[in-house]
Amino acid sequence: MNYEIKQDGKFKFIEEGEGEPLLLLHGLFGALSNFSDLIEYFKPTNKVIVPMLPLFELDLLHTSVGGLQKFVNKFIETRGYDNIHLLGNSLGGHVALIYILKHPEKIKSLILTGSSGLFENGMGDSYPKRGDKEYIRKKTQLTFYDPAMASEELVNECFEITNNRLKVIKIISLAKSAIRNNLGEELSQIKQPTCLIWGNNDSITPPFVAKEFNKLIPNSELHFIDKCGHAPMMEVPGEFNRILGEFIAKLKVSVATVL
Predict the structure, then answer these.
(1) pLDDT tens digits for range 150-159
(2) How far apart are CA 115 and CA 231, in angstroms?
(3) Are the C-beta atoms of 105 and 190 separated by less than 8 Å?
(4) Is the dihedral of CA 144, 204, 35, 87 positive or negative?
(5) pTM over 0.90
(6) Burial, 157: exposed, middle or buried (Cβ in 10 Å; 0-12, 13-18, 19+)?
(7) How far apart are CA 195 and CA 225, in angstroms?
(8) How many whole angstroms separate alpha carbon 72 and alpha carbon 53?
(9) Where are the beta strands (DSSP E) in the chain?
(10) Domain ranges of the chain
(11) Domain 6-122+182-258, classified CATH 3.40.50.1820, yes or no
């Protein structure tokens, strides 16, 4: 599914549909394509927005989860979004958490899936020699419960990134920043309804991480999906969209009841 990439100043993004904003933040090796099923499902009811995060465009000093949060803040300010359902996968979840802690007034609900911010297994203790495509293939397969989800196109995308020395330096910088920026003590400040959707077979942010988020974020609910790894919205989009759809619908009902 091809979407028009829109541009507003320095920001490139997808924006499809109308309704309350559903803003999606991708992870370290993520891309806009990660959310294609989700965009299709929600664009009849929501304005679905996917900004292209500048993982490799920021200077090294600002190549951090904090630097990405500032970028997202400027993007939201520029576009004038409000009352946002903010969803983040992996590193995108970490950025979403920092954003909501700094700008809670903009966010209606938070959705995390395979989020970093408490604990994550990264690329491992060793980083691959450039040119080791089989290593990249195996690491890409570990993202999913079903290794076949690591398509040749996806492996090639990851391989291209890890074959570029500057991009590798920036990936390591972002990964180290995520590890340093542990949010455990701050999560109790999040008051918005929060939906945690997790793969039961996630080896990067394992199920115990989801349980810890659930314990630390006061108004949160946790949903596990079986036979699913680190990117549920890609691997089991039907189940993921059903859970998220019910969560958002429930919020609409509770607001209507109050009114």
Answers:
(1) 899 889 988 8
(2) 10
(3) no
(4) positive
(5) yes
(6) middle
(7) 13
(8) 8
(9) 6-8, 11-16, 20-25, 46-51, 84-89, 107-113, 194-199, 220-225
(10) 6-122+182-258
(11) yes
